[in-house]
Amino acid sequence: MQESPLTARQLWAALLAAPARRRFGFGRRAALVNVDLQRAYTDTAAFPATAYECDPRQAEHVNRLAALCRGRGFPVVWTYVAYDAGGADCGVWGTRSDTPDSLQNIGEGSPRAALDPRLDVRPADVILRKRMASAFFETSLRSLLTFRGVDTVVVTGGSTSGCVRATAVEGLSCGFRVVVPVECVADRHEGPHFASLYDMAVKYADVLPVEEALAGLGAMPAAR
């Protein structure tokens, strides 16, 4: 009789128990890229149909990372998704549904597009509007990081299986070392969350506890 397949959580646990994989590691200079930590996806009380939470301290952890990066002169980037009125700029992605909670109804300036008020966003941070999954796709992120001499990208946000994973894959494809702190990413369902953590850890990123990410960033030389 064929054995039952492992659940995503069991796969993740098996990966953690296995011998450590060779890491990409932290390079010379980092950037923190916080993906879509906006109310549509973080405010579970106001937007229960679209928001999600894994670690209730996610915003706190992200703020710690941001403070450390600023202190070392590393860029801190926040992305958010928003579309023009009626979703004319959604492209094919916006054709799958047209409901009050669908993509084309996240308008620029709407409460759903606003960054979570628990986040410590500073005037010197970079805020980028994006329209597709990856934070790199048709934004200025890659050129910004190249100009700042960045070779390591720490990715937080959501969803783990969607925009975080897409950003990690494209970041690696662009030649960046990618780090994903576990407590700083979230998804609506346990299965895709742990499956995507597993997938990124095996292929595309160093998936680390947030304390290890903080230690790694703290050991990097400050930017001049």
UniProtKB/TrEMBL annotation:
Q: Which InterPro entries match?
A: Isochorismatase-like_dom, Isochorismatase-like_hydrls, Isochorismatase-like_sf
What PANTHER family has UniProt attached to this entry? ISOCHORISMATASE HYDROLASE, PEROXYUREIDOACRYLATE/UREIDOACRYLATE AMIDOHYDROLASE-RELATED
Alphabetically, the GO molecular function entries are:
hydrolase activity
Q: Which UniProt keywords apply?
A: Hydrolase
Source species, please?
Answer: Dankookia rubra
Q: What is this protein called?
A: Isochorismatase family protein
Give the Isochorismatase-like domain ranges.
31-211
